[in-house]
Records
---
Amino acid sequence: MGIKMLVTCDTGFEKVLVNELEDIMKLNVLKVSSGRVFIEVLDKEDIVNVLRSRIANNVYILLHVEENVNDLEAIYRVVKGIDFASFIEPWQNFAIRPERIGKHNFTSIDIGRVAGQAVIDGYLESRGVRLKVDLDNPDVEVYVELNVDKLIVGLSLTRSSLHNRKYKLFAHPAGLKPTIAFALLKIADWVPGQPILDPMCGGGTIVIEAALASKGVEVPCIAIDYLDINILNKLCPECGTYLHSLCFKNYRDADRVFVGVDINPRFVEGAIVNAKNAGVDDVTLFLVGDLREVVPKLKSIEKEFGVEFHTAVFNPPYGHRMKPGSLGKLYEDAIRTLINHGFRTIIFITSATKVSEKVLANFNEIEVEKFKVIHSTLPSYVYRIRTR
C-alpha cells in the first residue's frame, strides 16, 4: 500500500502539476480539485520526489480524510481518533495549521482550537502525556482543512510555501511566483537546456527557474530551511540519504541560453542580483532595452552561437498604471515582434483578458489556447500561442 499525500499549487495549474509529478515518478492520482492534488506514491523515497516539484507550493502526508463533517464536534471526534503517537514524541510540541473553505458558522480559528484540543486529549489518553502547543516554532505541524464538509488532516512537510525561493533578494513590484514561472515553462513544453527568452523579464524569475532546472539544482536543496526534516526522517529514515544525494550531486553543464530583456534598468539590475544569488549568473543573460529592438538583434546573432530561440515566456504588465490604449499596443507589438522573428511558441500570463482577446483577434496565423488561473489574487489567463 502506498503513501497518500496532498500537494497544493496555485489554482488553475493542477493538471500541469500532475504532469510534472508523473514525469518525476510513478504515482496514482486520487483526486484533483481547486489548487489541490491528492496522490498516492508507491515508495517511501517518492516522498522526497514529490518535494522535487518546481510547481508545488505545500506538501502534506495525509493522515485522514472524512466526508460529511459539518460541525466542530465532528472535527473534534475525527481528529481525536487519529493516533499521533507515531509522529509526535512526548517531549515535542505541536501546532495546528487550520484552513476553512466554504460557508460555516465558525471560523478557521475555531477549527484550530478544537483540533488542537482533540490532539491533546487523544495523546493524553493513549500515552498519558499532555502535549504542549507552540504556534510560533512547533516541532510538528498538523494541517487541518475543512473543505465544505470534507475534513482533511495531514502532517506538513513544508513549513513555508516552496514558492519562497531564497534567491529572490530583489522583489519586483509585480513579480511572478517561481512556482508559476516554472508552470508556464511546462505549458510551453520547454525542456531543460533549451534556449528561452523572457522579453519582459522584470526580476528574472522565469529565466532563473529555467536555468536552475537546466543545471539540475533541486528545489528541496534550495528550500531545505522550509522542509520538516524531522517528520521526513521519521516517515522514511532512508529519505535523508536520498535528499543528501540530490543536494550534493554534480550540477549539469548548461550554455548561456536563458535570456531576459526589460526596458527598466533597475529591474534588469535586480534580475542580475537574483541570478547571482541563485548561482546561475554564468548561464543567464539579462539585457536592458525595448523588446521590439532587442529581439531582432538577438535573432540576428543566434546562429553564431549555434542556438535557436523559438520559445518566449513572459509576464507582461497588466496596465494598471498605463495610459488607455498603450497596453494593447504593447501586447500587439510584443506578439508581432516575436512571431515575425521566428518564435513558434509564445506563453504569457495576464489579468488584462479583454485587452488580450482584442489583440489576439488581429492575428490569423496563430493557434491560441488559454487556461484560467489565479495569479496572486487576480483571476487571470495563461495564453499559449503557436504559429502555424
---
Amino acid sequence: MKLNKKCMLLITAILISLLMFSGCSLAKKHSSSKSDSKTETTKNLLSSENTQDDLKDSSDDSDDNTDTSDNNDSENSVDSSNVSSAESTITPAVWEVTDTNGNTIYMMGSIHMADSDATVLPEYFENAYAGCDYLAVECDITNVQLNSISAYKQLMYLDGTTIKDHVSAESYDKVVEILKNAGQYISSYDYMKPIMWVDLIEIAGANKCGLSDKYGVDVNLINRAKSEGKEVLEVESVEFQYSLLANLSDNIQSMLFDSIAHDEIIETTIDEITSLYDKWKTGTMTAEDASESTDDEDLTEEEVKLLEEYNNILLYNRNVGMADKAIEYMNDGKKVMFVVGAAHFYGDKGILKLMENAGCTVSRITPDSETVSEMPDAA
C-alpha cells in the first residue's frame, strides 16, 4: 500500500518531534536512567503481566520514592572528555544573538537521537561554547527521576479503557502488526495513549537508521557541561513536556494514530528521519523542514484545523516561551549556550525571528568566518 500525500504530510509532522522534544521518548526514559528501583518500576509498568490496577499502584508507589541523585549512566552516553580536541565532520547551524544592551547568547539546534557524528561538534561551536558559563537545554534528561512516573502515567489510560476504545479497530490492528514486525510490541502498550504509539514508530525508524539517544546532542552536552563545571539551566521540564503530549486532544491523537497505520510506515519513517538528520548535520534546515504546512488539498478542513492546533501546541507556543527564557538570560547578564530542539529556531514563528522582533541582532556563525552579519534565509 503506497502512502498517499495526506499521510506523508502527517508523518512528516510527527517526525519533527526528533527536533522538538528531549524528554518524552520511551527510548530515552529507559536508556538515560540507571537500573535503580524506579527504572525497574517503569519497565514493570510496561511488562505484559501488568494490569491497569498495577499501573496505578506502581505509579503511586514510585511517587513516594524520589531519588535526587544524578542518573548519568556511562553506558548510555559517550565519553566527552576529549571531544573538543577531535575533528568534527558536521556543520550544524550555530547563532550569536545580541540584544540592544550588548548582551550576547549563543544558540544551536539539537537533535535528540543521532549517531556518533553528532558527538564531535565543530570548532566554531567550541569557540562559542568555551566562552559560556551556562548550558541551557529543554530539560536535564540525565537527571530525570521516575517521580516522572507521576507525569508519565498521564500518557496511560487508567480509567478502565484501553487504546482499543479510542481508535478504530482497523488502525489498531495494523499498528500492532507493524510494531510486532519491528520487535516493538508488548501487550501492555494497549494502556498507552496514541501519541506514545506514534513515538514507538519513530523510535523503530530511528533505530533502523542507526540513530540512538546515546548520541543525542543534548544528553552529551549536558554530561560534558557537568564534568566541566558549567551550570545546566532547564528551559522547560520533563513534566511540562509530558503534560503537553498527554493533553493533546483525542481528535489530534486519533489523526496521528491513523497516519501510522500503513504498511510502509517504517520505511517512510526511515527516509524522513535520514533526510532531517542530514539537514541538521549540514546546517541546511529550513522553515519548511521545521513545521508542516497545512496548505494541502488532500487535507480535510478538520484535518487542517487539527494540524494547526498540533503545531501551535508542540512548536509555536513553546517557541515563545523559549525565546522569552533566552531574553531573560541575556537580561541577567548570563553567558549561555542555548541548545534546544532544532525545529524551534526556524520560520516566522521560530525563536530566532521572535528574538529579532524583540530588537536582538541574530548572526549565524559559520566555519569560514566568525559570524555572518545578517540572519540567514533558512531562519
---
Amino acid sequence: MSADKLQELLRELQQQGAVVTSDLRDALAVALGRLPLVSQREFDIQSEILQRTREKLARVEAQVESLEQALAEQEKRTPPPGD
C-alpha cells in the first residue's frame, strides 16, 4: 500500500470519526435536554429546605413522644371510671 493510499485512508477515517463524534454530541445533547436537571443554586436551596424540614420533624417527633409519655403517666395515676 502506498503512502498516498495510507494518507487518503487516514483522512477518511478522521472524517468518519468527526461525523460519529458530531452525531454522539447531538445525541448526548438531546438526552441531557430530557433529563430533569436543576442548577447548583436550586439544588443547594432545596438541600437547605430539606435540612430545616428534617430538623423541624425531629423537634415535632420529640414533642409527640413527650406528650405520649405524659399521657401514659397520667393514665397510670388516674383510675378508670367505675372503679
---
Amino acid sequence: MKVFVRDTQSGWFYQGPSQWTPEQKMALDLGQVARAVEQIFEARLENVEILLSYDEPRYDLVLPVPAAPSRADTSRRPDPEQPDMPGERKSAAHRHKKAPPL
C-alpha cells in the first residue's frame, strides 16, 4: 500500500512543500496514514484528501480530511451561558438541576 496526499480540487498529488504533480507515480509516498496526517498539518495543507493506493486500483481508498478550524475558532472557549440546544438558553444553575421524582 502507498499513501498519498491529493488536492481535492485539482486532483494533483503532493510532492513536497509547494510542489504538486498530476502524476501519482511522481508523488511523495508517505507510507503511513499517520505520516500523511502529520504532513498535512505541518505544511498547513487545505482541501486535500488521503489516498491509500493498492496494486489493484479498484481497492484504492480515499480518506477525506476535514477542514482545519481557523485560529480564531480554536482560541474560543465555550460560553457557559450559551444554549445547550438551538433556541434554548439556560443558566448555569438551571442546567445542573435534577428532575423531580415521579
